[in-house]
Write a structure and sequence with these properties.
This protein has 21 helices and 14 strands. It has about 600 residues and is α/β, with parallel strands linked by helices. It comes from Paraburkholderia translucens. This is MFS transporter. Keywords: Membrane, Transmembrane, Transmembrane helix.
Length: about 600
Amino acid sequence: MRRFGARNEPPLPVLPLGFFNIGGVGEVWFSRLDVPTDDELSHIGFAEVYWADVPREVVKQGDTLEEIKTWAETVAGRARALYEGVERAAESHGKRACLTPESFSIAAGVIDEIVEAVYVIENLLTVTAKTGVFKFDLGTLLRDYFGDAQLVTEFRYYRSTIVFRFHNVIREILARFRSAYPKFEGNPEIHIVAHSEGTVIAFIAMLQALSADAVECPDDRNTKISTDWIKSVRGFMTIGSPIDKHLLMWPKLWLDLKLKLKSKDFETQAADAQVVMLDSASNERWVLPQQIKWRNYYDLGDPIGFQLDTTRKFLRENQCGAFQFTARDDFGFSRYWLPSKAHSGYWNDDAVFGHFIENVVLTYPDAPFRAKAPPPDNKRFVGVVSTAIPYVVAFLLHMGALFLLFRAVMASLDLQIDTYPRVTSSVFVLSVLLMCATIAGRIPRLVYSNDVRWRQLCLGVYLFGALFYVLFIPASFVTLMGGLFGSLIVLLCAAILSLSGWVAPPQPYMGRRFLVGGGTLVLTVAIIYRLIQAPSSAAIWPVVLAALLSLYMWRLGVILFDLAFFWHRYIRNSVALDTMRAWREARDTEPRGMKPRVPLD
């Protein structure tokens, strides 16, 4: 309502939360904008389909939902089952599928590590959140989303309860409208705005309404309500929608629906085109006055919402012409700096809602807003900066770890490098080399490692770090390390760390253990070697303590790099969804860049 009121001139005052209170679960309350009764906006009402109490009660019980990591393993298993179609198609053509069971095992381990990374970062930033400096909301966001998604996809009863409530609320909205305006002829216009898992609920309910004349209550099969409310729906706005993931990963959710969906002239996308819905015998069942204008909005940094091209293909395959939803109606952009904000920032974005309001809602002849808002565009620098932030922080963690260790060793051995700038420059150069070793060691555990181009990239990253080290390391540090021989040892150790991801067994967690374990071994040997040369009066415990803290900071840097790389490659660039779309069509994936290959047939 606030976004709607902001379109007025002047903008309408902000209304308190109590203005919208529905009193109790399942009740329906119309809220209207605070404008005079003769204003055009006074004809627009707002109501909510409230279902948060269902997952909240299940979470409170504590014995229904699976723990996130355990459920993530089952999701990886679903991806494995989805790939079986590719394997069968490959075998029928005498070919070999690209991926193996070990690939999915590693993928499950990576998902587990990502969940762990979110927990670790969330715990570390507790202090900054309490002081108001910075708040990391991603952990809470993902836990809430995973809980809702698990409840909707895996538990038929709870899903049916929520969807039935949707039907009932929309039916009650129409009943109250007709009671308040008995002289109104025809159907009022309903526009549905749905967010996150709510888009899945709304889509299922709309498909049910298109498939059947009535739905039954999950608690009482003798209670049925009509679904003719679908004839009043004119617009459908989805923000941060995961519908595509649900279509790909849980195909049985849609099995009963897609067998019944069929429209006459389903390919038409003309404005105000009538839609004739057919029954199983291709007889006319009833008519939609016009297509439902569906507009989808998603930020490229949103971990949950994506474009919905699989959804459009699903509608085409089932000849459902009820929606006016083309590729031009799918709007992606970069407008929010952080992933947690990207998933919830739509609600406060006038550009997103303004486009839907002025191009879908207010399109009747006497609408108060005549100018059509353009689609939401990218905010300057958001895409570049939001992508770079986690990698910069990961590098700073590497640098902080080395600086802490460097100063402890110097103090313990009573060594002095002339000035602080030289200390900082030495640590900076070493940090670049260590970061390159981390990247080269972790990438093979996060991608399809048999691709030659990834091997070339990792080699190039290590060579860049080695060249940077050779060219810019201060002479004072070379002397401290024992001259040329010591510098060669440093490069050799970095090369070993870079190879850790390639030589580690193809099992979950082994890549990170080899990387951090190898670094720990190298660091231990180096400290022992230098302490042997130290005078007997040198204190050892400060170096040991600094080494432990440095290893912890380095591990955090590795975790953050994993999270950022996984995030940007598989989520922001949609590689995961693009790959599963190819699997759905029994097409294997091209290892180079994981792009869909030509069909096996």
